[in-house]
Write a structure and sequence with these properties.
The chain has 379 residues and is of the alpha+beta class. The protein has helices spanning 2-9, 21-25, 39-48, 62-86, 100-109, 120-132, 163-169, 171-178, 182-188, 197-200, 202-211, 215-230, 250-263, 309-331, 334-343, 350-363, 372-378; strands at residues 30-33, 92-95, 114-117, 139-146, 149-157, 160-161, 191-192, 265-274, 287-295, 298-301. It has one domain (21-212, 249-370): AglA-like glucosidase (LDH C-terminal domain-like, Alpha-Beta Complex), CATH 3.90.1820. The protein contains 17 helices and 10 strands. α3 (39-48) runs antiparallel to α4 (62-86), α4 runs parallel beside α5 and α8 (171-178) crosses α9.
């Protein structure tokens, strides 16, 4: 499918496809990581098990996102270690794999030249650009926080902050986009990302999950249909069905970031990088999601005003959990896993944390080999 698309565009480059990781890494300047350990079957567990214990089931947030992190971090670190041996000197690891913040934290803590990328900010940017009838490059967002825990505090169109006017004139429209109450946006003076709904409307979302169809089931069906479409030798354009899969504008975000890192031409991108004093109240080595300008091939975060107390408190809470999640993924110790869920604002109680760790580790046993010895000792 990729080959047909590139041929239609008259691309002069060469596409190589390999099922061997080492061959793909050889001499690479950029290692772009997008994978799902355990596939949609594991995602189904992430989404359906936590609600039974009164907490959100989601693939990147809460206990479900934690289970995904445990499966994912060791695999990505293994890829990064092989890249260090085989890829080009000075290569970049660009991580799209969720949970991006936790995976990026693990990569950076392990000493890799890595950067994380999400599509939430570029989606907002494109929608604002369409609303104001301007090119996306003329829209700059003050979009800050952690991955999947961000707020838009300003929307600058040609240098002018239009967010106060938007909140005054179109609050219902903005609130509908993130499925949160209008009054909440007005009180915050900011637009939360959609993922804040799991925190700000926890009980309502939990009720929806207990009575609805898991997203994993929907996505698995979409993917099956997409693969059938891709097999058609006449198809050489992105099928409309792909829009239902999610991840809008990821391709634009990816190619834009890689091009900027390669050229160092000064474009602005929303990325996951070390804090290094960007957001007051967080440790320098925390991984934050902020706008950064790519200068001389390196992301330089824009200076940021301090987060308001109501935003900072939640951010600090989740940042602590993310550090504990990395520690648990690396140690394979159920005690570390329980401490991580105790620190998570969406869990935070011993009973659910203890039971969820046991049940999630059992469900993912074949993907969590680091935990096998510890679990045997506990039994």
């Amino acid at each position: 499918m990729a080959r047909r698309q590139l041929a239609r565009l008259g691309w002069a480059g060469r596409l190589q496809i390999s099922g061997v990781l080492e061959a793909s890494l050889e001499g690479a300047d950029f290692v772009i990581v997008q994978l799902r350990v355990g596939g949609q079957a594991a995602r189904f567990v992430d989404e359906t098990l936590p609600p039974r214990f009164g907490t959100i089931g989601q693939e990147t947030t809460g206990a479900g996102g934690f289970a995904k992190a445990l499966r994912t971090v060791p695999v990505v670190l293994d890829i990064a270690e092989k890249a260090d041996r085989l890829a080009a000197s000075g290569h970049w690891i660009v991580d799209f794999t969720n949970p991006v913040g936790i995976v990026s934290q693990a990569l950076l803590d392990d000493g890799h030249r890595a950067i994380g990328l999400c599509n939430v900010a570029i989606g907002f940017q494109r929608r604002f650009a369409a609303r104001f009838g301007v090119e996306p490059e003329r829209v700059e967002l003050d979009h800050v926080g952690l991955n999947h825990l961000t707020w838009i505090r300003a929307v600058r169109v040609a240098g002018e902050d239009v967010l106060p006017a938007l909140l005054a004139e179109r609050p219902d429209e903005l609130a509908a986009e993130v499925a949160l109450p209008r009054q909440l946006l007005e009180d915050l003076g900011a637009i939360p990302s959609y993922y804040l709904r799991y925190f700000y409307a926890h009980d309502a979302v939990l009720a929806e999950q207990l009575g609805g169809t898991p997203r994993a089931t929907v996505v698995a069906e979409i993917e099956q249909h997409l693969l059938e479409i891709y097999r058609d030798p006449e198809v050489d354009e992105k099928p409309p069905l792909l829009e239902q899969r999610g991840g809008a504008f990821y391709s634009e975000a990816a190619t834009g970031l890689v091009a900027s890192l390669a050229s160092g031409s000064g474009e602005l991108h929303e990325v996951d990088i070390r804090n290094d004093g960007t957001l007051a109240g967080l440790a320098d080595d925390d991984v934050v999601e902020v706008p950064a300008r790519i200068e001389n091939g390196v992301p330089v975060p824009l200076p940021q005003a301090p987060l308001a107390a109501e935003l900072l408190g939640l951010t600090q809470h989740v940042a602590a959990y993310e550090r504990l999640a990395v520690a648990a993924a690396l140690s394979g110790d159920p005690a570390d896993a329980r401490k991580a869920l105790l620190a998570h604002p969406l869990v935070g109680q011993w009973g659910p944390a203890e039971e969820l760790v046991e049940r999630l580790l059992a469900a993912d046993e074949k993907h969590l080999r680091r935990f096998a010895a510890h679990r045997g000792a506990e039994r």
